[in-house]
């Protein structure tokens, strides 16, 4: 039994190595999409985001940061949390609006605030961050 648990643990750790571990802890976005900003703006205003957050997400609401200053992952995480009821005592109104949003609506709202190619730029940035730093001036690694 002990050996079996050990082997399963090793297999699990190896499987984690094949994944982008960062994606397990943050929201990822489809990097093949360039969002329609007209549609994104319609979704933002149709859902009355502008009422509390301003026309471009510039207003601070309830003593929190303006949503334009949040990262795409932070915006998506907050919307998901509100939709799932994790902020019940914090802002009931926000929970009501967030529950009406689909995942695509949330991504369009983020595109309205961050630009139509935010997902492409974000994933390109992630790829660059994952490249290891060169170990010598000749870009070779030490053994």
Mean pLDDT: 77
Biggest beta-sheet profile: none
**Secondary structure tally: strands:** 0
The span between the termini is 38 Å
Strand content: under 5%
Category by helix and strand content: mainly alpha
C-alpha Rg, in Å? 20 Å
SSE series = HHHHHHHH
Give the low-confidence spans.
17-25
Percent helix range: 55-70%
The coarse overall form would be: extended
Number of helices: 8
Task: Give the topology.
Blueprint: H1 2-17, H2 21-25, H3 37-46, H4 49-53, H5 72-83, H6 92-99, H7 103-114, H8 118-130
Task: Give your account of this protein's structure.
It is a single chain. This protein has 143 residues and is mainly alpha-helical. The chain is 57% helix and 0% strand. It is built from eight helices and no strands. Helix 3 packs across helix 7. The protein is extended, with a radius of gyration of 20 Å. The two termini are 38 Å apart.
Which structural traits does this protein have?
143 residues, mainly alpha, extended
Provide a short characterization of the protein structure.
The protein has 8 helices and no strands. With 143 residues, it is an all-alpha fold.
């Amino acid at each position: 039994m002990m050996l079996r648990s050990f082997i399963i643990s090793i297999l699990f750790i190896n499987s984690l190595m094949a994944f982008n571990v960062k994606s397990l802890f943050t929201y990822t976005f489809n990097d093949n999409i360039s969002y329609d900003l007209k549609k994104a703006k319609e979704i933002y205003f149709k859902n009355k985001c502008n009422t509390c957050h301003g026309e471009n997400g510039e207003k601070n609401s309830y003593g929190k940061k303006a949503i334009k200053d949040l990262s795409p992952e932070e915006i998506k995480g907050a919307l998901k949390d509100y939709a799932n009821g994790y902020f019940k005592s914090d802002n009931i109104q926000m929970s009501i609006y967030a529950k009406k949003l689909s995942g695509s609506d949330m991504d369009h709202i983020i595109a309205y605030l961050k630009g139509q190619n935010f997902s492409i730029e974000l994933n390109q940035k992630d790829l660059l961050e994952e490249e290891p730093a060169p170990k010598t001036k000749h870009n070779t690694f030490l053994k």
